[in-house]
TrEMBL record:
This is LCP family protein. Residues 115-273 form the Cell envelope-related transcriptional attenuator domain. Belongs to the LytR/CpsA/Psr (LCP) family. Keywords: Membrane, Transmembrane, Transmembrane helix. Residues 1-11 have a biased composition (Basic and acidic residues). The chain crosses the membrane at residues 36-60. The lineage of its organism: Bacteria, Bacillati, Bacillota, Clostridia, Lachnospirales. InterPro entries: LytR/CpsA/Psr_CW_biosynth, LytR_CpsA_psr. Residues 1-28 are annotated as: Disordered. Signal peptide: none annotated.
Length: 375
């Protein structure tokens, strides 16, 4: 009896050992199978990413042909010959692009013969992806490369986009070579395609939107309707949002308008991050014909690949200190240009070692003398 019990116990032990061995082998097979599945998934995902990247490249390449590109190259954009070395060094870590919003009614007027209602310096930190925006008041007195003085907004219309870039570089000791220009149709249509914007506005701003809505609608050919007049958050369509960004008669003229424009840009960037690929495709189809730029296809793809990482870190208004004069021609005078440009370089690039070039100093002295004579 004991022998049978011992034999039975041994068989049970062997069976138990064999069972555990099977379980181990089964777990190993399952683990190996799971690992293989994971590897297959990774491979499929990698192929999808590559395919998506290829699709995006060829899609954008196809749409890129719709953008109005200019004849001049980036290296042809002039900077001050006495540009401080500190500017060259500090700007290497940033990508700085000029953004122009023009009052052109069609895409044939994107590079000339249109006033630049919106002039914004966009500085992107290459490491942190932080964006800083500086709105330049359109009536700021500046010197063009031929030595003449104009309102900044008139330079774009009279001379064209290359001179507009070079004027910014000349007066502010910058070395910006890239630009993007859009008309108000592009802004309005983009906002509509993204489903509109929720903007907090005052009752006076709401009334002003209704006052000038017809003008934006007429110039773009896009229909819209009046907004309810109250203070608070409004859901605005493209024309309403664009009109809001163009309002000058509420607040302090261009100063408050520049703030509104930066607010709209910030909200559009956040909406773009949340938009579907289909929506972004629609924007490309509709908006690209209303854009002028000297960014290359690879530039655009590079910027687009980082869109989810971008965040607007700070915003400002130039000039920081100024006089304005309404007698005769309305001008905004920097007080003084050298001090304002110094502050601009600190804001954009954190450059504490900047010293104005002799070119900027000469322009600054002229503006002081001119204002004294016309007080």
């Amino acid at each position: 009896m004991r022998d049978k019990e011992r034999m039975s116990g041994r068989y049970e032990e062997e069976e138990s050992t064999h069972s555990r061995s099977r379980q181990v082998r089964q777990r190993a097979r399952k683990k190996k199978k799971k690992k293989m599945i994971v590897l297959v998934i990774i491979e499929v995902l990698a192929l999808l990413v590559i395919a998506a990247g290829a699709f995006a490249y060829f899609y954008v390449q196809n749409q890129y042909d719709k953008i109005e590109t200019v004849a001049f190259q980036k290296h042809e954009v002039a900077t001050n010959p006495d540009l401080p070395s500190s500017v060259v060094e500090t700007s290497k870590g940033y990508r700085t692009i000029m953004f122009y919003g023009v009052d052109a009614r069609n895409n044939s007027d994107l590079t000339k013969n249109a006033n630049s209602d919106s002039v914004i310096i966009c500085s992107i930190n290459n490491d942190t992806k932080e964006i800083k925006l500086v709105s330049v008041l359109r009536d700021t007195m500046v010197q063009t490369t031929d030595g003449k003085y104009h309102k900044l907004t008139d330079v774009y219309a009279a001379y064209g986009v290359q001179e507009a870039l070079e004027t910014i570089n000349r007066n502010f000791d910058l070395n910006i070579t890239e630009y993007v220009t859009v008309n108000w149709y592009a802004v309005a249509e983009t906002i509509d395609l993204m489903g509109g914007l929720d903007i907090e506005i005052t009752d006076k701003e709401a009334a002003a939107i209704n006052q000038f809505l017809w003008e934006t609608s007429k110039s773009t050919g896009i229909a819209s309707s009046n907004v309810d007049v109250y203070e608070g958050v409004h859901h605005l369509d493209g024309i309403q949002s664009t009109t809001y960004a163009r309002v000058r008669n509420v607040g302090h003229h261009d100063i408050t308008r520049a703030e509104r424009q930066r607010k709209v840009i910030s909200l559009m960037l956040e909406k773009a991050k949340q938009s579907s690929i289909g929506t972004l495709n629609d924007i490309c189809n509709t908006v690209f014909p209303n854009i002028s730029t000297n960014l290359t296809l690879s530039d655009i793809l590079s910027l687009a690949s980082d869109v989810a990482s971008y965040k607007i870190a700070d915003q400002g208004l130039f000039p920081y200190k100024y006089w304005d004069q309404s007698g005769g021609h309305y001008y905004v005078y920097c007080n003084t240009l050298t001090e304002n440009v110094d502050q601009l370089h600190t804001f954009l690039f954190g450059n504490e070692d900047y010293t104005p070039s002799s070119t900027v100093q000469t322009i600054s002295d002229y503006i002081l003398d001119y204002r004294s004579e016309h007080e």
